Amino acid sequence: MNINQKSVTIFGVYAISDDEPYHKKDDFFGKLNKEITKIGNGRELIILGDFNGRVGRRTNHKVVGPHGEITLNDNGERIIEICESHLLKVTNDFYKHKDIHKYTWTQPTRNLKSIIDYVIVRQQTTLQINDVRTYRGITCGSDHYLVKAKIIFPFRRDTREETNGNYEHTERIESKRYNLDSLITGSTRQLYRKRLDEKLISITQNNSVEEIYANIISSVHSAAEEALGLRVQVQSNNIWWNEEIDCLIKEKKNAYKKWLSSKQQQDRDTYLEVKRTTRQKIRTAKREIWDKKCQEINTYLGGRKCAESWKFINKVKTSEKQTAKLQLIPMNKWKEYYEELLTENRQEYATISPT
Prior knowledge:
Blueprint: E1 2-3, E2 6-14, H1 22-39, E3 44-50, H2 74-86, E4 88-90, E5 105-107, E6 112-114, E7 117-122, E8 128-135, E9 146-152, E10 161-163, E11 166-168, H3 186-200, H4 209-227, H5 243-262, H6 265-300, H7 306-317, H8 331-342
Parallel strand pairs: 2-3
Antiparallel strand pairs: 1-2, 3-7, 4-7, 5-6, 8-9, 10-11
């Protein structure tokens, strides 16, 4: 992908366990090494995921930092070897944090913990890595914690041309998302073409190449906004959501945070009980909503409200999580458009009176 004019490749990795036979680990890390080699050195590289390896900690080392854990295993040595051969580094160990913000995997029942989830980048990366740490408060149904890396992609300014001591550059167009679905309608396509034609007329051959380019880009965006409208991101609402479920979810989060802090078995049991109750309530609410809607459909079909049934069915079939909101064109604008479209402006033929 390209981010701020930088070519970036991101690998998601799930490595085999350190307990696996050596030949299987050789195959896996050999494939990983091969894929990294394919990328070359011309792109930024970010490798992240569950490596199932413990790389330990070292001082004055280019691959591993001084703030990791002590333990080093075979998978960890393989990770370090790959990083050294491709000039990469494990970013987790270069930032000082409390232990609770270092370890990425825990097993409370056996009192086990380790750092096995990593964010790996190039040693000479142009990206700015500000921090890497775990977040225990995010409940994702796993014994792994969320690992978050704060990465800044430096912004590269547009290339400027120096003319008589003055710097000129093309004005950047604000990124917008248009309601492209409306182009399915023929009248909307025709309206867009008309708006675009009107705006492109102003471009003359006397303009410079940069001015012509800027005018074309501006015309395309302006015509799209007028004819298509903007696509507005809206949050989808679950029809089964209610205040009771909202309170239970908040209670579950609080119970989880309390257990993380105390590590007491009683608090863990409380969290699991609230979690179980919340799931049951959500299942019940969903089932009740579906039963109600099915009854409504059964009542409407064949009656006067058949259209409402199909409206609901189509809503259920829709998989999109966002709704395209069209900025409607006023009726007077439509009137002016069709009057202009249907009015002939041809010159009348001169009528010659018989002599």
